[in-house]
Every structure is written in structure tokens, then in C-alpha cells.
Amino acid sequence: MAAASSLCSSFTSKTCTNKTLTLPSSASSPYLRGYIHFPLFSVSSSTSAAKTVRGDRRPRLRTVAASLGGLLGGIFKGTDTGEETRKQYAATVNIVNGLEAKISAFSDSELREKTFELRERAQRGETLDSLLPEAFAVVREASRRVLGLRPFDVQLIGGMVLHKGEIAEMRTGEGKTLVAILPAYLNALSGKGVHVVTVNDYLARRDCEWVGQVPRFLGLKVGLIQQNMTSEQRKENYLCDITYVTNSELGFDYLRDNLATESNSSFTCCLNLM
């Protein structure tokens, strides 16, 4: 697994709470899709802040600390042993593992079809929480085929923690980028889009080109926002299922959108902030 010594990124589903940003409870903008929230929930290491994801809106923020040991040497190390955290997610991890044999027998096309099936079920009203085991099993298998990397159980837990909107700590090189794609794929099934936020153009491009292969393989559109892009290019990329963008570009795009005097002057669609 590639080390991520310089990785410093935030992963955000396009949902938000009323924390961190003081914004209108319902602001409509053609600039970005769905809900957006700047880093509140995060995975971080001693040298970097890492991925954040928002799933369902939560009134409180709870730090998840777990010392997982084993091969990865403690992916969520914190102030306790992490036994409670492992037990909390053990049942779901077992379900994902139980699906592995079935999912691994799928052909590439059947694996992609699973994405469309899950998306249709989400649109029919099934919750993302209920779809999580199948979605994570699909991403794990796609990652194995495309990247040659099979997410460990502790990385599945990391994805579950992020989807739940809680904080987990990961050390450098323990796979923040790979962990983040699990809840990114899951939340993209809602059709509202997901932002993966990092600190510079290089990291955004690297992550999009590398781990972005997984959702692309599964039939999702993956976009990338870079500093010198035109408005039309930005609009096209923000409309993707998963969009990689830097924190500065995302912030300035929001400001530009609100300064636009005409609706056709902005380049993404429908940003609602809470």
C-alpha cells in the first residue's frame, strides 16, 4: 500500500451541520451540488489532517479512538484500547466479509451492474446505512482487481466511522486515501455527489488518478478541480458523482458562486448549506 506521508486531505460528503460555517439554513446556488461542509469530521495523522466524510447529519461529534494493532500497527490509536469501537462495528464487518465470496465471483460487468442496483435501491428509499455492507464489499473487490489492494477489516471500520460522521485517527501510510473511497462510493449512490477535499492540486490529481480508478471501474463519474480550470471545466467536474478538489478552490468557488450576478455566470449546480 502506498504511503501517504505528505497526504493532508479532508473528505466531505455534500452534507453539513450547523457547525463550523455560519451560513443560511437553505442557500441555493448553481455552483455546487448537494450539501457541503468544511472539515469538521476528519481522519488525521500526526503530520496531516486527513479524510473527512459526512453521512447522516448528527447533532454531536464524538471522537472514535481505537488501537487496532496487527499489521497496520494501530490505525485508530487513541486514549483507550479501542475494544468498544471494534465491537461496535464487528457485526457489520462480519456481514461485509460474509459477502466477499459471492462478490468475488462476479464478473467485471456484474460488479459494475451492482452499482446501478444499489443506486436504484437508494433512490427507492433504502437508507445508505442499510446498503453499506454490500457497497463496502463491492468497493473492496473492485479495489483488489484495480489496485491490487484488498482493504483490511480495520480499514472497513475506518470507512464506517467516516460515514457515520465521527472522527478516527490514522497514522501516516495506513491508507487514508483508500479508506476514504469506501464512504465516498457509498454516499455517491444517493445521487447528491461527494466532495473529496485535499490541500493542493498535486494531491487532488494524484488521488483522483490513483484511487479514483475504483469508482470509475464501478461505473461512477469521477471529477477533478484544478486551479487553472475554466468555469465550464469546473461545472463539468462538479457534476460528477465524486469530485476531488482542494480546500482553497472549494472555498473560493463557493464565494464566486455567491458573487455571480447571473445564474449562468456560475458553473456548478445547487449548493445548499445549513
UniProtKB/TrEMBL annotation:
Give UniProt keywords alphabetically. Protein transport, Translocation, Transport
- Cite a single GO MF annotation: ATP binding
* Helicase ATP-binding domain ranges (all copies): 157-274
Q: Does the keyword Transport apply?
A: yes
Q: Which domain of life is it from?
A: Eukaryota
Q: What is its EC number?
A: 7.4.2.4
Catalyzed chemical reaction(s): ATP + H2O + chloroplast-proteinSide 1 = ADP + phosphate + chloroplast-proteinSide 2
Q: Kindly list the GO CC terms recorded for this protein.
A: membrane
Q: Which Pfam families match?
A: SecA_DEAD
Q: What are the recorded Gene Ontology BP terms?
A: intracellular protein transport; protein import; protein targeting
Q: Which SMART domains match?
A: SecA_DEAD (SM00957)
All copies of the SecA family profile domain together span 71-274
- Can you say what this protein is called? chloroplast protein-transporting ATPase
